[in-house]
Amino acid sequence: MNDQSAAKPSGGILKWALWGAALFGVAAVLYIIAQSGFKPREAETPAPAVRTVMEKLVVPKTPLPPPPNVFVDAQGKEVRLTDFKGKVVVMNAWATWCAPCKVEMPTLAKLQAAYAGKPVEVVAISIDSELAVEDAREFIAENAPLKFYHDPAMKLPFALKPAAAGMPTTVIYGPDGLERGRVSGEADWSSPAARAVIDGVLAEG
């Protein structure tokens, strides 16, 4: 009986042992929570890669000339895409209500700047309504050296063959005035891939 009584821990010792275990458990949980707040960013799932201009470029089986539709420049003078024949033309159809159009416009401005003094012309044509034309004009002014062009009839993108699937649509024409390729949707036109496309068309000329 005495041996069995000696083997049992006293009530006080048992109480402190339980408190110690509880405190240790709380400390462990707090440590885990604290560590979880310092996970390296590399552990996060990476965002999907954006497709490059080269990946999105569609080359026509039969190169066609641009539609004869008339649009106007900043002074209201009538212009046609055929007026730029002899240059590599990067025609971009856009609108102020098109968020992807506005995102990619600064990259088109950088593309134009990269080919300063060379026969490359970025022709960004707004298809905004007359109510929004001043907003379009101001937006282009923020993206020099691009020039302002407006299609008041809002028909040029749909006169393309095939018609533009949506905004933005960018069509590249060679110096001979024939389509070399097009990109539907937003793209980074300031990228090396974009310049490689333009350089390739220039080399043909």
What does the average pLDDT come to?
83
Taken as a percent bin, the fraction of beta residues is: 15-25%
Low-confidence stretches: 1-50
Strand order of the largest sheet: 2-1-5-4-3-6-7
What is the first-to-last residue Cα distance? 109 Å
Gyration radius, in Å = 32 Å
Q: How many strand segments?
A: 7
Determine the fraction of residues in helical runs and give it as a percent range.
25-40%
Shape field: globular
Describe this structure in words.
With 205 residues, this protein is of the alpha/beta class. The chain is 38% helix and 16% strand. The protein is built from 7 helices and 7 strands; from the N terminus they run αααβββαβαβαββα. The protein has helices spanning 2-7, 11-36, 53-56, 99-114, 133-141, 156-159, 192-204, and strands at residues 71-73, 78-79, 88-94, 120-126, 149-150, 169-173, 179-184. It has a 7-stranded mixed β-sheet with strand order 2-1-5-4-3-6-7. The radius of gyration is 32 Å and the shape is globular. The chain starts with a helix and ends with a helix. Mean pLDDT is 83; it is low at 1-50.
Offer a few descriptive terms.
205 residues; alpha/beta; 7-stranded mixed beta sheet; 7 helices; 7 strands; disordered N terminus
In short:
Helix content is 38%, strand content 16%. With 205 residues, the protein is of the alpha/beta class.
